Amino acid sequence: MGSYIGRGVICMPPMFVNVGAYVGEGTMIRFARRSLGVCAQIGRNCHISAGAQIGGVLEPVGALSVIIEDEVLVGGIPAFMKELS
Question: What is the pTM (predicted TM-score) of this model?
Answer without folding.
Answer: 0.82
